[in-house]
Specification:
With 233 residues, the chain is mainly alpha-helical. It has one domain: Four Helix Bundle (Hemerythrin (Met), subunit A), CATH 1.20.120. 67% of the residues lie in helices and 0% in strands.
Length: 233
């Protein structure tokens, strides 16, 4: 893992405060876009999903607060600088939100009947996706939420990056694509099916930026053939 310089106590406190504020939006998001449409608090699938997301997230934040706080600071940046990425976000946001609203409506009106074992398996799959993302974070301290090049950033070619050029997005696919199933809805899979399309456009633009601005990335593209899924793309 690429190490970052340590933070002062003041910087660390500011970072923790920022993380807490942003973290508080997670339950608010679930409440607004899933529980509210469901019209009930008796929705065990939501709480199981929330636990699968929350517990690893707390572990990851604790790990990097101790080992690489600069990484967390970079992960708190959410304002994209690239015009193409801003457009992709603008288009993708309502699609992503609807993938949570529809399961809530599904719960209210009883459109789907997803077996318990399928829900549990999906939660385990989502946890596996988050594990991939965590491994990416450990291997690449510059895995930012936004497309940017930082001072001192280097191309990572080992670990998961030796298999595909964008392993974090592979983890994102595994983590979010089956989310509606974890929430007990088949219908919610329809909007979530657009997630791979959004990631493809994001990756293509990201590779353009990295090839132009990050030393060694063009050569890396030649040695690591696949972008997202081994032997497919």
């Amino acid at each position: 893992m690429e190490s970052s310089s340590e933070m002062t106590t003041t910087e660390l406190r500011a970072l923790v405060k920022n993380i807490i504020i942003k973290f508080s939006f997670v339950p608010l998001f679930i409440a607004m876009f899933t529980l509210l449409p469901a019209g009930t608090m008796k929705y065990w699938q939501v709480y199981a999903y929330f636990g699968v997301i929350l517990v690893p997230m707390l572990f990851v934040m604790g790990y990097f607060l101790k080992n690489d706080p600069r990484f967390l600071e970079r992960r708190t940046r959410v304002a994209e600088k690239e015009k193409e990425q801003k457009l992709i976000q603008l288009i993708n946001l309502p699609i992503f939100i609807s993938a949570f609203i529809i399961p809530g409506l599904d719960k209210r009106f009883g459109w789907s009947h997803v077996p318990v074992e399928v829900i549990i398996f999906t939660d385990a799959l989502i946890l596996g996706g988050y594990l991939i993302i965590f491994l990416v974070f450990r291997q690449n301290s510059y895995a930012s939420r936004i497309i940017e090049i930082n001072i001192g950033q280097k191309v990572i070619t080992t670990g998961l990056y030796s298999l595909v050029r964008h392993p974090m997005y592979l983890g994102v696919l595994i983590m979010y694509l089956p989310t509606p199933l974890a929430l007990g809805s088949y219908w919610g899979l329809i909007p979530m099916a657009f997630l791979p399309v959004a990631l493809i456009f994001r990756i293509l633009n990201e590779e353009k930026v990295l090839s132009e601005n990050l030393e060694g990335y063009k050569e890396y593209r030649l040695t690591t053939r696949y972008r997202l899924i081994p032997y497919i793309w």
